[in-house]
Design a protein that fits this description.
Layout (H helix, E strand, L loop, with lengths): L7 H9 L4 E5 L5 E2 L14 E5 L3 E10 L4 H5 L8 E8 L4 E7 L14 E13 L5 E11 L1
Parallel strand pairs: 6-8
Antiparallel strand pairs: 1-2, 1-3, 4-5, 4-7, 5-6, 7-8
The protein binds zinc ion (ZN).
Zinc ion (ZN) binds next to loops.
Length: 144
């Protein structure tokens, strides 16, 4: 795993394998999620991949009716909104992700501090490469 670069592409490849991976600084132990190739705490480039346990808590959220293209293609709109949130994982870092299994019709019922588990959602994604080709991509989500 040493040779895998600390990029978003690598992070997304791990999501396909249903792994939530962060980069950990071997000098100061800081944990970066999504991964960074250089520690911004101590400027070290001695990082390693670590797998997180996928548990976290909701620290902020919003309910979105008009989302980006992948979410519109996944069927989300004003009549079928989705929840996007910031999750603090058990190991410490925070990451944004879709929050599944919450009452999006009644956002007042969605509670900060709710325990969540990582989920890996596969959906189509448009890429403007050569001609418009559709491919499947795995997105990080968290579920109640
Ligand atoms: Zn560091």
């Amino acid at each position: 795993m040493k040779d895998i670069p600390f990029t978003i592409a690598s992070f997304e490849n791990f999501l396909k394998e249903k792994k939530l991976m962060a980069s950990k600084c071997n000098r100061c132990n800081a944990l970066w999620l999504p991964p960074r190739p250089i520690c911004i705490e101590c400027n070290s480039d001695e990082l390693e991949w670590v797998e997180l346990n996928g548990k976290g808590k909701l620290v902020a959220f919003t309910v979105i009716g008009v989302g980006p293209i992948p979410m519109i293609e996944a069927g989300y709109d004003r009549d079928n909104p989705y929840c996007a949130g910031i999750v603090e994982v058990e190991e410490g870092p925070r990451i944004s992700a879709q929050i599944m299994g919450v009452d999006v019709a009644h956002p007042e019922n969605i509670k900060i501090g709710t325990n969540l588990t990582a989920d890996f959602v596969e959906r189509g994604s448009w890429h403007f490469v050569e001609e418009l080709a559709k491919e499947r991509k795995t997105y990080l989500a968290f579920r109640v």
